[in-house]
Amino acid sequence: MYFKSFYPYENNDVAVICKEWSGGGGNGEYRVRRQLSVSSDSKLLDEGVREDARVVMRPKRPPRPKSEAFLGPHDHSNRRTKRFSAFGGDSPFGKSEAYIKLEQLGEGSYATVYKGYSNLTQQVVALKEIRLQEEEGAPFTAIREASLLKELKHANIVTLHDIVHTRETLTFVFEFVDTDLSQYMEMHPGGLNRHNVRLFMFQLLRGLAYCHRRRVLHRDVKPQNLLISSHGELKLADFGLARAKSVPSHTYSHEVVTLWYRPPDVLLGSTEYSTSLDMWGVGCIFVEMLCGVPTFPGVRDTNDQLDKIFKVVGTPTEESWGGVSRLPGLRAHVARWGACPARPLAAAFPRLRDAGRDAQRLAAALLQPDPARRLPAPRALAHDYFSPLPARLAHLPDEVSIFTVEGVSLQPED
Fold this sequence. Notes:
Blueprint: H1 47-52, E1 68-71, E2 82-85, E3 99-107, E4 111-118, E5 123-131, H2 140-149, E6 160-165, E7 169-175, E8 179-180, H3 181-187, H4 194-213, E9 216-217, E10 226-228, E11 234-236, E12 243-244, H5 264-267, H6 276-291, H7 302-313, H8 330-337, H9 345-348, H10 350-354, H11 357-366, H12 377-381
Antiparallel strand pairs: 1-2, 3-4, 4-5, 5-7, 6-7, 8-10, 9-12, 10-11
């Protein structure tokens, strides 16, 4: 599910309380390990985490919020167990009264996003409120996003500050970011300032390289999921479709990535893909930022989308893409739509030609139909296209913004 608004937030850090006994007899010693901000019986937890968590819960009466767990006593006395916040001790985090809704920003099929205010930090935040169904619990996309984001800490990935879990709702508390790339391009039609495109691309690749090093595929790279702050910081958001890619490779659903940014291998029915899935979307966004129009705007269905792509990059053959004939969608598409020769990208997108040879080469390396030939994020960061940027950017710590480097700033859009 996608938000029309620029806040497709739904991810996070949450905390389980684990009890580990280190001795026998009447007195047990325990230590509290902070991981997530919901109790161990919550459906948000990974199965592996839930297996490790052994929490003694109070009886069901009176009912307690899901964000609280109860630790047993240190001895065999009849003293009642103490209630702990999911963030430890009497922490105010994880509590609904810590946040104030200000205005609604967007609404989807199962969640509503609000601009909010944190009484804890005295800062504006984004509140993504997910409505819970008693029989179904939390939506799977929210569970998956929270599970992944607890491991992702990067300047170019949106920060999840808190989770508030009640009987009726699950609220993700995110940092507030001004707009997204889709709205930014709508505010500046006709193509963006080329210097700004270079900065946005570097940040997008930087965030994806970090994810891919941790074997996480975003699987929904599109302008609406790239948040843009007022000073130009780009942040990947909406990890609801993201997956941790394990070894050996598993097969995944091919119904991923919004149609315009979906690579041809997935459109043809491939379910065995890797980080190359995200890189096709990066190429589409790169050309769109420079040209001011969507790169491959399919309007009807998968075949129409493939037709838009093949009219530019050419219909693949076994010579140009080994193994493509085994994909289920190729024969049917060629039988209905025919085959097209490849064209230079600069001929299809004149503004890309104006951006220079390095921009054309980077776009061509990203928009490779064969996923095995598609440029990965770490190599893309080292491309000559980024040579005008300060060399120090390549060595920044993960959580440090590129805008901390002297001389790095957005330029006014024409």
